[in-house]
Design a protein that fits this description.
By secondary structure, the chain is an alpha/beta fold. The chain has 7 helices and 11 strands. The protein has helices spanning about 5-10, 35-40, 65-75, 95-100, 115-125, 140-150, 225-230; strands at about 30, 45-50, 50-55, 80-85, 105-110, 130-135, 160, 175-185, 185-195, 205, 235-239. The chain has a 9-stranded mixed sheet with strand order 10-9-8-3-7-6-4-5-11, with helices on both faces. A two-stranded antiparallel ribbon has the order 1-2. Helix 5 (about 115-125) runs parallel beside helix 6. The N and C termini lie far apart (about 60 Å).
Length: about 240
Amino acid sequence: MVGLSPSFAALLERPDLWRGGALSRAAAPTLGTGFPGLDAELPGGGWPVGALAEILPAHQGIGELRLLGPMLARLSQRGLRLAWIAPPHQPYAPALAAAGIDTAKLVIVRTASAKETLWATEQAIASNACGAVLAWPRAPKYAELRRLQIATEGGRASAFLFRLPQAAEEPTPAPLRIALAASNGGLAVHLLKRRGAPLLHPILLPAMPPAARGKNHHVDRPPAAAAAARDFPARLIHA
């Protein structure tokens, strides 16, 4: 068998390149998810920083915010802002606090149109003023997603878009796409796209402990928007 030339062998050792049968070894920073089984399957061992990720829950409130909870808690405890752009429900402050998230670091942005949502998301990402940006865009086009991905590159924010499950059939420039389904009270995480070999089986995350599921501690689906608004100290901005 003919040996590889020194230049080609050196190319294969570059951390920003990966082979089809392995995870990316890129030196880009990541944030641990708080779930070791998930970290083991994500390039770099966690959520990407300076890149776009898509989360496709089977339905709203399945556990999509609980999935990001450990990371959001660490960022807020480090004093970093968490921007939520056009969330479908009013966040419930007691549940977020119970998850360790400093709600004083949350910035909630309300928008009046899909265009405003995309604009606010891009501005939050490009500002480098946030540790994480979570957005709920309405039927974004590929070119719009590409614009958001470019905005994340080289930045310090982790950016997450929550999209409908039907989006799995559409192309995306985001390097990470995840689908979520319920599984025995926990979550089945399907890695639809990642920098590396495809994962053919879901990652099963455990259900929340009973204490965390107690009355009035719903992170993903608040029981009463009025109570949430009364108790919520985050800044509210209208785009």
